[in-house]
Each structure stands twice: as C-alpha cells, then as structure tokens.
Amino acid sequence: MAEQRIRIVGENILADDYYPLKKISYEQRRQDGSWQAQQREVYDSASGAAVMLYNRERRTVILTRQFRIGARLNGSDGFLLEATAGVLDDAPPAERAKLEACEETGYQIERLDPVMTLFVSPGSITERIHLFVAEYDPAKRCGPGGGKPEEGEDIEVLEMDFDDALALIDTGGIDDAKTVLLLLHLERRVLGRHEAS
Ligand SMILES: Nc1nc2c(ncn2[C@@H]2O[C@H](COP(=O)(O)OP(=O)(O)O[C@H]3O[C@H](CO)[C@@H](O)[C@H](O)[C@@H]3O)[C@@H](O)[C@H]2O)c(=O)[nH]1
Ligand SMILES: [Mg+2]
C-alpha cells in the first residue's frame, strides 16, 4: 500500500441548507516527513453531467443562457452561455445528460459520446462533472425546452454557428469552464476549425 500522506481527523458542518458546507481538519505528511495540521472549508455540492449538442452538417452548437449567481458575485452579469447541464440526482451521467438536454433545450438526443470527467474546483468544491458531446437533429424534439419554471429555471436556448462560438471564447463572451472545454474538444476531435474568410 502507498504510504499514507493524509489523515482526515475531523469534520465540522458550518452550514447545511441545500448542500453542506464543511470544515475539514486533516494532517498532511510533508515531503520532509513532518506532519502538519491543516483546515479547509469545502462545499460538498452534488456532481453533475453536461453535454454540448452539435450538428455536423449545419456546423452549429446549442448553447443555453441562464442566470448564475456565483458568476454574478465575481465580475460577470451572471448570464453565462453554457452547454446544457444538470446535477446527477442518482442518475447515471449519460442518462442525466440526455434528460437535461431534453428539459433545457427541447432536443431529443439519441447517442452521447463521453469526453472526460473533471473536478471543477478541487480546492474548495467536491463536485465532479461528467462531460459529453452529442449530435442533435433540429427536427427531433421532445418538448419546448427552457427548464423547469417551478424550480426557478428560465433558460434561453440559442443555436449558434460553431465558429462564432469559438470566436466568443477568444473575446471572453463564453467563459464557463465546461463549455469552453467542450467547444475545444469539438474543434480538436469532431468538427475542426474553419478559418474566417
Ligand atoms: N432552492 C434552491 N434550489 C437550488 C439550489 N441549488 C440548486 N437548486 C435547484 O437545483 C436545480 C439545478 O438545476 P440543474 O439543471 O440540475 O443543475 P445546474 O444548475 O444546471 O447545474 C449544472 O451545472 C452547474 C454549473 O456548471 C454544475 O455546477 C452542476 O454540477 C451541474 O452540472 C436548479 O434549477 C434549482 O432549482 C439552492 O441553493 N436552493
Ligand atoms: Mg442545468
């Protein structure tokens, strides 16, 4: 067994409303062999799944725009352009991604391709996000999209030229991490880049 480097010694719940905010005490064995006591606040938020919908023939993607309070509190108006995403709520990631695509965008997805699973902000948040891409057919719809109004969701759905979306990364118009990553994945592995004429 690998030598133990971390001993978790305590957990204190600071707040427990929607998801718990915890203060974790642990001891870390430093590279010089000494043990050091540390404490960190961690938001134990749920993990999620996100999917970037694209259409190869039209060379388009589907983006959502909704209000995000975390961004608003840190320098943005909070209305971020994003790939569709949702918390897992015990569903397998691919199934959750398909359900959220229907609820939020109204498109019926048949096949999802997994991209990667990432920690979003591992120093302070437990969340992992499972990323997918999937082709959409503009004619295959499962509902109106827009999210669940009773949960406060008011989601705008935009079909955007893929190259325009890539250009928005460069100007900061798209600044949500999972969304940037999924667009760059599409560019690298699926759709390539068309140079502006
Ligand atoms: N009342 C209340 N409701 C909440 C709270 N936090 C979340 N919700 C409810 O939970 C729903 C979550 O919607 P989803 O579509 O399932 O999740 P998401 O907000 O899109 O989250 C996804 O994207 C996030 C941002 O990238 C990810 O952090 C998350 O893991 C997930 O992938 C929201 O509509 C909202 O009603 C809260 O603190 N209070
Ligand atoms: Mg969502």
From TrEMBL:
Report the InterPro entries cross-referenced here: NDP_pyrophosphatase, NUDIX_hydrolase-like_dom_sf, NUDIX_hydrolase_dom
Q: Which PROSITE patterns match?
A: NUDIX (PS51462)
List the transmembrane segments: none
- Note the coiled coil stretches, chain numbering: none
**Where in this chain does the record put each Nudix hydrolase domain?**
44-182
Q: Which reaction does it catalyse?
A: GDP-alpha-D-mannose + H2O = alpha-D-mannose 1-phosphate + GMP + 2 H(+)
Q: Key word DNA-binding present in the record?
A: no
Cofactor needs: Mg(2+)
Looking at the keywords, is Cytoplasm present?
Answer: no
Q: Which UniProt keywords apply?
A: Hydrolase
Q: Which family does it belong to?
A: Belongs to the Nudix hydrolase family. NudK subfamily.
Q: How does it assemble?
A: Homodimer.
This protein is called what?
GDP-mannose pyrophosphatase
What is the protein's species of origin? Massilia norwichensis
